[in-house]
Amino acid sequence: MKHIKTLTTRNLTESVKKGGCGECQTSCQSACKTSCTVGNQKCEQISK
Amino acid sequence: MVHQYKNNGYNMVLDVNSGSVHVLDDYSYDILPAVEAALQPEAGLLVRKSGETTSKAIEDADINELTLAVSNYVMSNAKKCAGDKIKEDITTDLDSLKEEEVKELVSEFLELGLAGSLFAEDLYRDYIFDFKNRQTVVKALCLHIAHDCNLACKYCFAEEGEYHGRRALMSLEVGKKALDFLVANSGSRVNLEVDFFGGEPLLNWDVVKELVKYGRSLEEKNNKKFRFTLTTNGVLLNDEIMEFANKEMANVVLSLDGRKEVNDKMRPFRGGQGSYDVIVPKFQKVAESREQNNYYVRGTFTRYNTDFAKDVLHYADLGFKQISMEPVVALPTEDYAIREEDIPEILEQYDILAKELIARKKAGKGVNFFHFMIDLEGGPCVAKRLSGCGSGTEYLAVTPWGDFYPCHQFVGNEKFLLGNVDTGIVNSDVVGEFKQCNVYAKEECKDCFARFYCSGGCAANAYNFQGNILGTYDIGCQMQRKRIECAIMMKAALDE
Ligand code: SF4
Ligand code: SF4
Question: pLDDT value at position B129?
Fold first, then answer.
């Protein structure tokens, strides 16, 4: 019996290798302007 | 680091360092703390060579032996470990576990460990070291086009647009110099962001239009692309402005605080009349003309509307699809500031909102709530997640007379004056401090499960509450963690 269901996620450890290009949006600029949230930002590498 | 929580009937597990998310049944949820403890170096069950990851160590181990050893550990320690970690959430009788079942479960957990999606370690701490000496480029500017406003919002950090200073409009000349500065200091970065902000930028609309034109003229020869955005209170919106914005602005932020009575209390005209009836029809028109994309209707909640879930749903009922609602940033001495005692209600509101948004989505009436948006599959890389909001390094605010500050929240605080459009950045000490802003530089963040989603929080909040940009703002953290828990739970709920 399966007790665990795993959702599809981007592996963060892998992203260290390719990431850091810096093309993505600046956090506060995107919509909120009073607090910082990055989990909801898009990666420019993936969306291309 | 494994974060476990229950929300809306789901047993959620976030493997913090890999970013993996699992949904567990009650039984495995209660046993997981003991499995996690069994794999710690102190337990001595999993042999790790120096620098080896859990995944690699499991691969190298004799899997049958390891499964047995961990199962035995779980049999004798399940209750204590669960008691330490998940406390009142325990639902299974951990005194009478069956060995065969435990073994089966342990091997399921070890498989995930082997795959790197559970018990992953933090490999990024060393990486951050380079971060301190990193070369940063400026990617984004917040142009304070007008330090003046036609509303008199109660909580305005700009103090009715004046930012503790004089009323002023940015001249075209200053604006052009700011754009030149951005192009010159953005290195090889192609996408440049410029927000027209205020006060109220529509009070200086001609300059906005000219600056867009000027920006476009710089693009090709410098291999840059401007993403212009506009933040407005809507009072002066008209067809001409909408048309221009739809052509040139990548995003438009429309300020509205939710229900009429809430909005009109906090966002009155200078004479005291409410603004709701004037702005709502205009905002609806903007949203429709942008095909319900690339805009946000954005509000602020204060201790006067701690039942803000109603305001968010009110936006949805008005037909808005892109919604953002933020806790107010205010000194604790203000009557509308959120206090510690408001927290339980606020956290409950996020739960209520999450449930309602799931129901609406399932009914085909979904809306995007900015703070519940998490992209698990395509979110940012770790470098981005660690490096904070970018204020003072990648992101600068420019005053109408051309002074640079780390961000719009610091404008007017002379300690943070960084330079101006003529001299460039001269206060490199302050920039250096902002460069160090990352989750490993902040005590509270190091062990916080939210660190890769929050990125260390808002430097301005930290400064307001702790007098130090490397601090954290506890009330904000509690809300942040809750939002992330809700957002991840929603993924599980919508995955069914
Ligand atoms: S929630 Fe608070 S402690 Fe956690 S990462 Fe964000 S700022 Fe740091
Ligand atoms: S310090 Fe706060 S307000 Fe300023 S850019 Fe960062 S998150 Fe935004």
Answer: 52
Average pLDDT over chain B, rounded to an integer: 92
Q: Shortest CA distance to B263 belongs to which of B326, B328, B311?
A: B311
CA angle centred on B184, ends B180 and B189, rounded to 5°: 115
- Candidates A25, A29, A34, A38: which one to mutate for ligand 2, based on the most atoms within 8 Å of Cβ? A34
Confidence check: pLDDT of B166 > 80: no
Query: Separation of B476 CA from ligand 2 center, angstroms?
Result: 13
CA-closest residue to ligand 1 atom 3: B445
β-pair partners for B228: B194, B249
- A5–B contact, CB cutoff 8 A: yes
Cα angle B445, B448, B449; round to 5: 140
The whole-angstrom separation of Cα A27 and Cα A45 is 17
Per-residue b/e over B55-89, b at no fewer than 16 CB within 10 Å? bebbeebeeeebbbbbbbbbbebbbebbeebbeee
pLDDT at B333: 85
* Residue B161 pLDDT grade (very low, low, confident, very high; cuts 50, 70, 90): low
Radius of gyration over alpha carbons of chain A, in Å? Answer: 15
φ and ψ at B71, to 5 degrees?
A: -60, -45
From the list B15, B10, B28, B39, the residue with the least C-alpha distance to B105 is B28
Peptide bond into B199 cis (omega under 30): yes
- Give tens-digit pLDDT for B403-445: 999 999 899 899 999 999 999 999 989 998 898 888 888 888 9
Say how many CB pairs under 8 Å bridge A and B.
215
pLDDT in tens, B474-492: 999 999 999 999 999 999 9
